[in-house]
């Protein structure tokens, strides 16, 4: 016997939850339909709600952030290894070898995003994610023993294969647990935890490089070996503790599960999965807005990858030694934490995203311009801070903006895959625009990054104008069908 969910109140003029939701059933992996009892959020007392939400945050976000932190570290430690002597051992300064090694990681990473994400429901969250982590951890470990730059290139391609489905799966999971106007704070917390770990990656790399000569291995090799072993260990942690989707959660009791599923359905009506078919995937791929969300994430990812891969090299060009260059990459990441939290809090409070995206992109453009052209190296270093502050705040805002404007699990799986695939193209652009011959200032690459932010602003403006138009049409009763097929749904601006 299921408990019906009563219509939720109309919260604001920008976006409000549907008055009801279509089903309280879930489809099992075998295709059978199982009943899931749900309830309205208003049926629960405030203490229970606060306690349950705190438990969700503690149980979900730190675990996913910890695991993804090492996915990020394993991806971006190439620059630290280069600065620690890998360039000399493997001859990476010759021609475009380093850019090629950096770039080819993204080829399988882009191609396998959507196919990999479609496996999440079929194989199961824990099984699929644990396998991926174990596989790329083994590859990372192997990178510590390569003898030639060609072997390094091969391991980077394999790293791209196994990391490809991971990030879109995490985005899908996080957005599945929270209401639309709660999600940016969670995305920001997840992102900050991971980017902070990424910012500390050069410190870890520096410490590991001091093992130079131990066990007959050069210092840069120890970076890959130790970080690979940590990742392999995290695969077992993932299998034991990573959360699944809400209807699968074993860490919730039945009352908590009813609460979580009911409140998501009140908000957007898609807490439980719809059947994922080839026809649905093709239909979602015909929606141009999903491609637009991917494009703006690509533009946001470009300065992020440029910071990760090339900031140590830019700092070395300012006259800092390898150790100082690695250490000075950390403070800009730390500076971005309070601003990213502030932007996320304001965006969720106002239930609005696009203006915050535009502001943070302008900050990023200013930072890149200062780093590129200011004659004083200390001021150029300040430009690195501004770039990171703007970019770090824009990424979770873009993730929330796109997640807020899709409905259904099947569409969310396609949307998250396209987002991360396009983000990887941003990595390719960073690798190709920041060329070896442009050392030490990398002015062409910084100009390209500024152009990417300008394009981001234009596409967000176009998307927001589109959403405003259809929201107006829906409120005036001029549409034959509700937006996104969900009664009461309005786009987040």
UniProtKB/TrEMBL annotation:
<feature type="compositionally biased region" description="Basic and acidic residues">
    <location>
        <begin position="23"/>
        <end position="35"/>
    </location>
</feature>
<feature type="transmembrane region" description="Helical">
    <location>
        <begin position="190"/>
        <end position="208"/>
    </location>
</feature>
<feature type="region of interest" description="Disordered">
    <location>
        <begin position="1"/>
        <end position="35"/>
    </location>
</feature>
<dbReference type="GO" id="GO:0022857">
    <property type="term" value="F:transmembrane transporter activity"/>
</dbReference>
<dbReference type="InterPro" id="IPR036259">
    <property type="entry name" value="MFS_trans_sf"/>
</dbReference>
<feature type="transmembrane region" description="Helical">
    <location>
        <begin position="443"/>
        <end position="465"/>
    </location>
</feature>
<feature type="transmembrane region" description="Helical">
    <location>
        <begin position="60"/>
        <end position="78"/>
    </location>
</feature>
<feature type="transmembrane region" description="Helical">
    <location>
        <begin position="128"/>
        <end position="146"/>
    </location>
</feature>
<dbReference type="GO" id="GO:0016020">
    <property type="term" value="C:membrane"/>
</dbReference>
<feature type="transmembrane region" description="Helical">
    <location>
        <begin position="158"/>
        <end position="178"/>
    </location>
</feature>
<dbReference type="Pfam" id="PF07690">
    <property type="entry name" value="MFS_1"/>
</dbReference>
<feature type="transmembrane region" description="Helical">
    <location>
        <begin position="98"/>
        <end position="116"/>
    </location>
</feature>
<keyword id="KW-1133">Transmembrane helix</keyword>
<keyword id="KW-0472">Membrane</keyword>
<feature type="transmembrane region" description="Helical">
    <location>
        <begin position="290"/>
        <end position="310"/>
    </location>
</feature>
<protein>
    <submittedName>
        <fullName>MFS general substrate transporter</fullName>
    </submittedName>
</protein>
<feature type="transmembrane region" description="Helical">
    <location>
        <begin position="413"/>
        <end position="431"/>
    </location>
</feature>
<feature type="domain" description="Major facilitator superfamily (MFS) profile">
    <location>
        <begin position="60"/>
        <end position="466"/>
    </location>
</feature>
<dbReference type="InterPro" id="IPR020846">
    <property type="entry name" value="MFS_dom"/>
</dbReference>
<feature type="transmembrane region" description="Helical">
    <location>
        <begin position="220"/>
        <end position="242"/>
    </location>
</feature>
<feature type="transmembrane region" description="Helical">
    <location>
        <begin position="354"/>
        <end position="373"/>
    </location>
</feature>
<dbReference type="InterPro" id="IPR011701">
    <property type="entry name" value="MFS"/>
</dbReference>
<feature type="transmembrane region" description="Helical">
    <location>
        <begin position="379"/>
        <end position="401"/>
    </location>
</feature>
<keyword id="KW-0813">Transport</keyword>
<feature type="transmembrane region" description="Helical">
    <location>
        <begin position="330"/>
        <end position="347"/>
    </location>
</feature>
<keyword id="KW-0812">Transmembrane</keyword>
